[in-house]
């Protein structure tokens, strides 16, 4: 079964993109290519409170997965 991501509603596409950005940011933290302040800086750029929470939840999830929490 395949799913065409381009047919998802915009809100769902944004959640997927925020999850990808969170994953990459946590990877950069693990590799010492970013500072913890970048999490706050990136979260502050997100104006929608629900999307900001999705991003922060994803950051927390990836920190646990990558052993940073």
What is this structure's SSE topology?
Elements: H1 10-30, H2 37-44, H3 49-65
Describe the structure.
The protein has helices at residues 10-30, 37-44, 49-65. It has a domain at 23-69. Helix content is 67%, strand content 0%. It is mostly helical and 69 residues long. The mean pLDDT is 95. The protein is globular, with a radius of gyration of 13 Å.
Short overview:
The chain has 69 residues and is mostly helical. It has helices at residues 10-30, 37-44, 49-65. It holds the Pfam family DUF3283.
Give a quick account of the main beta sheet: strands, pairing sense, barrel closure. none
What's the average pLDDT? 95
What's the tally of helices?
Answer: 3
Span between termini: 35 Å
Based on secondary structure, the structural category is mainly alpha
List the helices and strands in order.
Answer: HHH
User: Uncertain runs with pLDDT below 50, 5 residues or more?
Assistant: none
β-sheet strand percentage: under 5%
Helix content: 55-70%
**How would you sum up the global shape?**
globular
Radius of gyration: 13 Å
Give the total of beta strands: 0
Features:
single chain, 69 residues, mainly alpha, Pyridoxamine 5'-phosphate oxidase
């Amino acid at each position: 079964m395949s799913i065409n991501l381009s047919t998802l509603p915009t809100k769902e596409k944004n959640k997927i993109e925020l999850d990808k950005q969170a994953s990459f940011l946590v990877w950069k933290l693990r590799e010492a290519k970013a500072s913890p302040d970048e999490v706050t800086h990136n979260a502050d750029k997100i104006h929608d409170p629900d999307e900001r929470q999705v991003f922060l939840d994803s950051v927390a999830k990836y920190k646990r997965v990558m052993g940073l929490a």
